[in-house]
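hey
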């Protein structure tokens, strides 16, 4: 079992990068097409967050790289998690349920969900979190090769969307594979651990949410626009809050419910915008919305490539 995987904390000490493994993609997907990097490790030891380019693509204390799938359908079809480098499996967990996390859940020590931990020597380990229940294909002490399938992406543990959280450690320190020595701040690093470094885009999504009306920017920025429940007769409005948009960028807003797609809307930018949001919604049908969980997805796209995705869920009571 790997209970300790869930409690790795952000470490401010500069990690040692000598003899570190070189890493391939830990997920069988195509960035910008079937997956995106949603969050990077937080390099700011204060109570604010910063990614390795000094951008906002992280959260306070975040210790991994989040590779997000574009939809729950992609998860259901199967998205393979693969070993980023050769090594030896030291721990696995595989039977936690895939379920939407809510604060009242007691998952202390299991925030990482179903997971695999691999030792690569010289104190380096990689950890693969939020795997699909029952999908893990390796066992402790098993030798694995780079590119070997470990399991499938799920949304077990503390998560509300299907993704892989990929964490690299060296001893007790978290290592950012994009900037392992954390020098050359705010620019392309002098070195990284990737065999083929994923591209960085400064555009992204701060948040997505569902409301019972079109909110204003202040409500979106403060978080007060986001609802967790609606009545059967409330309007249903999905919104996305984004940054660093270019002309011709688009926000695609899609809402799906218990019976399938509810609506889809594409909004196009006409000029450069540092921060912006777009919203789209519908009034309830005759008789009200069917009860259940509705899943919204907002994608920021540029020249046909997906730059960012955020998910937002709402329960109709």
């Amino acid at each position: 079992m790997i209970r300790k995987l869930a409690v790795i904390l952000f470490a401010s000490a500069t990690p040692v990068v000598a003899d570190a493994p070189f890493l391939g993609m830990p997920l069988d997907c195509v960035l910008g097409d079937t997956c995106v990097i949603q969050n990077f490790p937080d390099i700011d030891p204060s109570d604010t967050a910063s990614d390795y380019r000094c951008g906002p693509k992280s959260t306070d204390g975040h210790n991994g790289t989040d590779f997000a799938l574009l939809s729950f359908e992609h998860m259901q079809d199967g998205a393979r998690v693969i070993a980023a480098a050769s090594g030896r499996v030291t721990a696995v967990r595989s039977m936690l349920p895939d379920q939407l996390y809510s604060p009242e859940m007691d998952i202390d020590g299991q925030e990482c969900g179903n997971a695999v931990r691999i030792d690569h020597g010289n104190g380096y380990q990689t950890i693969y979190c939020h795997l699909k229940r029952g999908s893990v294909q390796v066992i402790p002490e098993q030798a694995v090769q780079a590119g070997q399938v470990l399991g499938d992406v799920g949304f077990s543990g503390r998560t509300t969307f299907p993704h892989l959280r990929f964490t690299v450690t060296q001893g007790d320190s978290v290592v950012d594979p994009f900037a392992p020595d954390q020098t050359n701040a705010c620019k392309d690093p002098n070195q990284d651990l990737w065999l083929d470094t994923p591209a960085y885009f400064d555009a992204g999504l701060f948040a997505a949410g569902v409301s019972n009306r079109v909110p204003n920017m202040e409500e979106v920025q403060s978080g007060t626009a986001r609802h967790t429940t609606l009545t059967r007769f409330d309007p249903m409005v999905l919104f996305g809050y984004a940054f660093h948009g270019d002309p011709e960028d688009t926000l695609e807003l899609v809402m799906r419910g218990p019976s399938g797609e509810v609506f889809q809307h594409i909004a196009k930018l006409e000029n450069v915008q540092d921060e912006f949001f777009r919203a789209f919604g519908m009034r309830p049908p005759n008789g009200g919305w069917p009860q259940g969980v509705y899943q919204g997805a907002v994608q920021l796209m540029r020249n046909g490539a997906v730059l960012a995705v955020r998910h937002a869920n709402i329960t109709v009571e």
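The chain has a mean pLDDT of 90. The chain has two domains: 3-14+22-175, 204-316.
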